[in-house]
Amino acid sequence: MAPLILRLDITGQPLRWIPWREAVLLDFKSMIAWNAGDHSFTFRGGHNRVSGKRSSITVSSIIAVKGRSRHGASGALVPPLSNRELFLRDGQLCLYCGKQLPEHMLTRDHIRPLSEGGKDSWRNVVTACKPCNHAKGARSPEQANMTLLAVPFEPNRAEYLFLSNRRILADQMQFLKKRFRNGSRLGI
Ligand SMILES: [Zn+2]
Q1: How far apart are CA 110 and CA 84, in angstroms?
Q2: Domain of residue 106, CATH code
Q3: Residue 105 covered by a domain
């Protein structure tokens, strides 16, 4: 399977992962401003009817695209909350008992319960094992006399992109890591 290409805006802010076909199309439309990847991928097209030569196009693993981003200021976008990225954010650890568990044994715990007006947002959710989530119930950690092992955070764009791609390439990882928040525990 071809790896995903990291798309940046013209200023070098990471935007999103795109399939290589989209990168090829951007290149075809001369929309790629510059490349920042260590890897390049060559894709073969059809044969030219006149020359008989097969066309090919090479795209980098990281591309900066011309024009204004559809998302506006890329850093301002709140990344969507999903269990997969949440569990990865917390290193697949239950943030109450510290056990590291496979994804199917983990749950999303609302620190301030939804029934108490807590939000379903990055800063109000943590990874919890089923027994801890059950023990806590619809209570705050203080009420349940349970302590959080880490402070939940909302990933920035680079951190979210890092979390959401399991086939990330070394150069893409390097690029994103430079844009993590200070003291980020991700990818250690
Ligand atoms: Zn636990």
Answers
A1: 15
A2: 1.10.30.50
A3: yes
